[in-house]
Amino acid sequence: xxxxxxxxxxxxxxxxxxxxxxxxxxxxxxxxxxxxxxxxxxxxxxxxxxxxxxxxxxxxxxxxxxxxxxxxxxxxxxxxxxxxxxxxxxxxxxxxxxxxxxxxxxxxxxxxxxxxxxxxxxxxxxxxxxxxxxxxxxxxxxxxxxxxxxxxxxxxxxxxxxxxxxxxxxxxxxxxxxxxxxxxxxxxxxxxxxxxxxxxxxxxxxxxxxxxxxxxxxxxxxxxxxxxxxxxxxxxxxxxxxxxxxxxxxxxxxxxxxxxxxxxxxxxxxxxxxxxxxxxxxxxxxxxxxxxxxxxxxxxxxxxxxxxxxxxxxxxxxxxxxxxxxxxxxx
Length: 331
Hints:
Blueprint: H1 2-12, H2 19-33, H3 35-43, E1 60-61, H4 64-67, E2 80-83, E3 94-97, H5 100-115, E4 121-126, H6 137-149, E5 155-157, H7 161-171, E6 177-182, H8 184-193, E7 203-207, H9 220-231, E8 237-240, E9 249-251, E10 257-258, E11 263-268, E12 281-288, E13 297-306, E14 312-317
Parallel strand pairs: 1-13, 4-5, 4-6, 6-7, 7-8
Antiparallel strand pairs: 2-3, 8-9, 9-10, 11-12, 12-13, 13-14
Helix pairs in contact: 2-3, 5-6, 8-9
């Protein structure tokens, strides 16, 4: 669709002042062109014309990405399909894309806005489980970051812990920053099995969440405390993302996330998914304008809260929901 190109260009220069207008325009567009979202609105007896402000926008339950092809227009025109990892026997989510190039460039813009140019980094990705299956959006993003870093030292690591530690040691004296991007269980495995980590002053350790059934679930504070002690860093950074979203949110410590200009979180009541939360805590309804080709309005199964400074904290997941890569138990 020509509209996709237009939306993608507008996202590059989007400011907070124009967020609501963009979101309302997308709601009307997707109510017409996305058969799944359109059917959902009809099932709830919601007329698209009644959506006149952000609070009126209905959020599509994330389960639909497991059961249906959530796409604007003909799904056959999608150029890429990302899938979630899931657990054994679980039905995985699938996100149809109109352009992988857009996704990778968008992910790069979001990262560089928070951390600076990728050319200033060595990127080491410790992503077992993700690397062992096709269709991971996280692996695609990490691969792009590795390429854009233009560093011969950047690369993927599976279970080769000694090689990773040796590479980190070699990079400890350089001027570039070192990004160690790792799935949580693999970072914990490294911390528990390899002793005497050497201090690296320019190291950023970023966990992406996820135990993948490999370890017991742990609260965020416990995970970060263990990783801080091992890597000898003041903070553990985090990336909050999922297959169903094309945008990522970053935390520079303590699980406090600052949303980019293309995203908005609206907390819903924990017991009534159609009502806003009357507290600073609730289920996370997420607007991701980068999902202009699929559905930008998603009712996730994550629970969050706003802290006193306006940062988002992701507390965990609703009971009986599928385990996901970003899962950390409710505190």
